[in-house]
Amino acid sequence: MEVALFWIFAALMLGFGAAVIFLKSPVSSALSLVVSFLGLAALFLLLDAFFIGIIQVLVYAGAVMVLFLFIIMLLDLKTERARKINLPAMIGGLMVVVGFVALLVKLLPSFDIAKPALARPVNDVASVGMLLFSDYNLPFQVIGVLLLVATVGVVLLSRKELK
Amino acid sequence: MNLSALAMQPEIFLAWTSIIKTLVIVFGIVLPIVSLTVFAERKVCAFIQDRVGPNRVGLPTTILGFKKDIRLLGLGQMIADPIKLLLKENFIPNSVNKFYYYIAPKLAMIPALLVLAVLPFGPNVFFGDIKVPLMVANVDIGILWVFAISSLGVYGIVLAGWASNSKYPFLGGIRSSSQMISYELALGLSVIPVFLIVGTLNMQEIVVWQRENGWMVAPFWPKGFSLEQLLHGDFAAIGASFAAGFSVQRLLIWVPMLISFIVFLIAMFAETNRVPFDLPEAEQELVGGYHTEYSSMGFALFFLGEYAAMAAGSGVIVTLFLGGWSLPFIPDGSATSFFGIPFIPAWGASLLWGLIGMTIFLAKIAAMLFLFIWVRWTLPRFRYDQLMKLGWYFFFELALVNIFITALILALVKF
Amino acid sequence: MIVPYALEISVVCVGIFLLMVDAFLKTDKTTIAWTGVVVLLAIFGLTFALGPMPKGVIPEAFYVLDPTALFFKRFLLLATVLTLILSIDYSPVYQKFVPAAVPQAGLGEFFTLPVFACAGMMFMVSANDFIMIFVALELVTITFYVLVASMRKNQGSLEAGVKYLILGALSTGFLVYGITWLYGITGYTSLDGIQSVLPRVPEQYQPSVLFGLGLVLVALGFKVAAVPFQFWVPDVYQGAPTPVTAYLSVASKAAGFVVLLRVLEPFVTTPTFQVKVFGILTILAAVTLILGNLAAMSQQNLKRLLAYSSIAHAGYLLVAVASLSAPGAKVAIGFYLGGYLLMTFLAFLVLLNVAKVSGGDDIRDFNGLGKRSPVLALALLISMLSLAGLPFTIGFLGKFFIFEAALASGQYVLVVLGAITVACGFYYYLKVVMAMYWQPPAPSATNIQVSPFGQFLIALLVLAIIIFGIFPQPILGALTHL
After folding, report:
1. ipTM of the complex as predicted
2. Distance between CA atoms of residues C6 and C302, nearest Å
3. Cβ neighbours of A75 in B, within 8 Å
4. Is the Cβ pair C105, A148 closer than 8 Å?
5. Which residue of A has its CA nearest to B200?
6. What local confidence, expressed as pLDDT, does residue A150 receive?
């Protein structure tokens, strides 16, 4: 059951991930990304990582992508015109992709997939919280500074007239 | 292995009980609530405007040759409205983006129904050793699920506005997305104090906590107070139980809890696009807002989604702040007798108390829905910039500061 | 006991304090920058009170305060101070390109954000764990995204901001993906943990470790502007506000190199990975040297030229990284970066003052600078000669130490390549000198006035370049414990 669900959601995620790139309309691309995120969240849920899974939905699908869509619609981005294919760039890009995939294909069989997963935390919200505020407190605080800087930056970059 | 043994296997048991619970909740509770709410909306509106409201549609007995219809206070309107919507022509304008136009109403409705999955409709009911929670999914991330799923509801509205390829719907969709993003912050921040106090995100546990320690908005709470005491008129015991439930911390926490409650309530109005935050469908400015170009079933789904979201939102408010299915003197599903009536078995008593809890929960939801309707017919609509200012400059800060106040009280006042 | 990361905390507090001053006090905005300069210098002084701490003493698993970290914290504080001073000089230009409702709007943020970037980079040089590296790196790059794009009425700045953001996000993706591979195989995000596990990694997983490390190297290569991850450098350096360019090319690069050294440490000390990792680094160093220097030769814009020169210098630094097995390599890197700080800030200080008057930063705007402003011309001459690596300047010694380390570890090919590319370097640096002394000034060109403090700073940097070029002992003394 879990294995079947894994394949379904993984296929969903990858398929819509590819659709993000191949679809011509920006709105369709953005929505494909949303579905891809939902597939990813489902994979997290299958691993019993409820907290991360649901945060994935809440933050990425529910907030970030809504803003993306908002901007796409507000700017009224039209369907991309068919671009002229730049042959060297195309070949270069393909080489990178093929090389990357080849590496992955070569590396992945060395892993023992049947190995049992790590011990699963019972209440992952609490354990994530505990870790953040104890062991990982320093990086967590640095993220606080990061958010402050980002806030200042957004005001600096987006305000129509600075005061 | 025979069928009944198979059905009692833990995983299978979970599966079929979940399916039954889902079906009951969607068709037995939500759909009736929605049509009742629509009817109530018209009736309450009429009352507030000093009119009569729909009072004609009842049992159409004249078809059968009787002289008069039976009016039933106009309750037939509940059925007549959906039938009217279903039978209308499903007109699709030429210029719409067909695919998104088609899926948008579904996207608007589904999240509202999914939210209900984590709402505890009643206490845990015990059949012997087997515990059946009266909710679809008893998960530890309960409230996060609510936020995550309800944040997806905006896609339906935004897409409807965009796919209609028409000015007013588009404006409605855009307004909706910015409004929802803005108020989601206040919504999420305002409930953090609740979790600081309770220490869990599990909705059922939040209700159980409130059952024992008092509702979030009501700090004076009897401890060890039972139905028997009330029935026997044992007022000394009742007084003692109130004294036992008293603590300074609870009293101080009352202030941030009220702030939380008010901010959450208002943010919920904004999230469900209700007056005074109904800018996405402001009929005086935008014709019909995002659903201008929809008719028949598409429109009905938006309608259904909006009212289901309202009901679900009410359910969340009730669960978090108003004690969910609990009332101070009503036992929960762990009780083994029902008023001491001898021929009711333990599981029957448990089930009956569970159903009573469910009724209490639905009654509280009804009260919240009444508030929603009352506000709609009382307050004028905000202007767009006022709405944004209110969300970002006031509620956001208030909710943020509120967290610190709560944390301080919890850390400093220990008695 | 004093908290080990007291320095970073105080820098963050300075940043918040300056933001508050900007928000609530109606002072002249340049006071914000001057306050920042003074307080950061005070913190610079404090670093000498705080000695390095051994690993066991610090309770924090993510943070080390070894001599390397301490040296580079001082380096970064100085770079930030210089950037703030440059920013004050630059503020009239900046104001022209910011949509402002009131005079001096946006300057407060322009002066404050480098302070936060400084805190981020100070965390970076002390980071001992991939989580900390990632978080600190993001703090730094996000600050830089904002700073680079902040001149919103200037197309170049906006373009630079977008390019930096997109490529930066891509490199972040590589970093995180690489970290997951390393974590997946070793079970640690801390570098100490990885070091302890690496010798025991079974044969079948070794390619995967290298794959993960490769992805991390891509991301770090992006930060230090190594070829082939240098695409963003010319456009971003040219478009960004000049002080930000200087800051980006000095501080961000130095912090990137420190992280690179820390990340490589476990791998180059483990025999099974040593050869392959050095192989990768040698190739990186070689292509960076060649491409950086060759591409710089055809540049007509001084900022762009300095961008390519920054790539070329990354190449020389990578030579030292590829020679890490030699004992002097780390000292060479520290010394080189120290020299690079002096020369680059001097070059940008002159560039800024000239561009303010000439209105452009093409090389032809420097035509006849020798007549228009002999002092600035002399300063730029010294900076260019030092960047090129003429003897008796700090640039020469920097290259000398690096080649010494490379010879000691047997990287002969890189030394030969380095020698050839230094010759290329002379060509394009002297192109600027030619323009200053042999080309007639444009008829409209006027003389250039430099503020007294600017003159003082120029003199100070020139003297430092020459003095440390002849007597390197003070800097080397600070570096002996690396």
Report:
1. 0.90
2. 39
3. none
4. no
5. A126
6. 93
The CA distance from B383 to B395, in Å, is 16
Q: How many domains does chain C have?
A: 1
Q: Which amino acid is at B389?
A: K
Which residue matches tokens 């974590």? C183
C23 touches chain A (CB under 8 A): no
Among residues C206, C210, C138, C203, the alpha carbon closest in space to that of C176 is found at C138
Alpha carbons B297 and B293: distance in angstroms, whole number: 12
pTM (2 d.p.):
0.87
The verdict on residue C234 lying in a domain is: no
Cα angle, residue C369 at apex, residues C365 and C371 outer, rounded to 5°: 140
**Cβ pairs bridging A and B (under 8 Å):** 66
Q: At what angle do helices A137-158 and A124-133 cross, to 10 degrees?
A: 90
Q: How far apart are CA B372 and CA B352, in angstroms?
A: 30
Lowest mean pLDDT among A137-141, B126-130, C188-192: B126-130
pLDDT for res B379: 84
Arithmetic mean of pLDDT, C353-365 = 82
Contact A162/C101, CB-based, under 8 Å?
yes
φ/ψ of residue C53, rounded to 5:
-115, 135
Return the structure tokens found at B214.
Answer: 């008092």
How remote is the C-alpha of B55 from its chain's centroid?
27
The CA distance from C305 to C298, in Å, is: 8
C91 domain residue, yes or no: no
pLDDT > 90: percent of chain B: 1
Residue C479 in domain: yes
Strand partners of residue C100 = A162
DSSP SS3 for C317: helix
Please indicate whether, in this complex, the C-beta atoms of A142 and C98 are within 8 angstroms of each other: no
Residue of chain C with shortest Cα separation from A139 = C132
Q: CB distance C132–A138 less than 8 Å?
A: yes
Tens digits of per-residue pLDDT, A107-134?
A: 777 776 555 555 555 567 788 888 888 8
Q: Is the peptide bond before B276 cis (omega within 30 degrees of 0)?
A: yes
Question: Which chain C residues are within 8 Å of A146, Cβ to Cβ?
Answer: 120, 135, 138-139, 142
SS3 (DSSP) at B59: strand
Residue B392 distance to chain A (closest CA, Å): 14
With respect to residue C305, please indicate whether it lies within any of the assigned structural domains.
Answer: yes
CA distance B151 to chain A (A): 5
B135 reaches A (C-beta below 8 A):
no
Q: Which spans in A47-122 are helix H?
A: 50-55, 65-75, 87-107
Contact list, A138 vs chain C (CB under 8 Å): 5, 60, 62-63, 132
Cβ <8 Å between A107 and C146? no
Contact check, Cβ <8 Å, B177/A125 = no
Q: For C194-237, what is each residue's pLDDT tens digit?
A: 888 888 888 888 888 888 999 999 999 998 988 888 888 999 99
Q: What is the largest CA-CA distance in chain A?
A: 60
Percent residues over pLDDT 70 in chain B: 94
Q: Return the amino acid letter for B345.
A: P
Q: B155–A27: do the CB atoms touch at under 8 Å?
A: no
Residue A141 Cα, gap to closest chain C Cα (Å): 10
Q: What angle do CA B300, B306, B308 make, to 5 degrees?
A: 95
Question: pLDDT band for position C56 (50/70/90)?
Answer: low
Peptide bond before C99: cis, by omega within 30 degrees of 0? no
Cα(C253)–Cα(C247) distance, rounded to whole angstroms? 9
pLDDT at A115: 55
User: How far apart are the C-alpha atoms of C240 and C238, rounded to whole Å?
Assistant: 6
pLDDT tens figures, C28-38: 888 889 999 99
Name the residue of chain B whose CA is nearest to A59's CA: B148
Classified as helix, coil or strand, C53 is strand
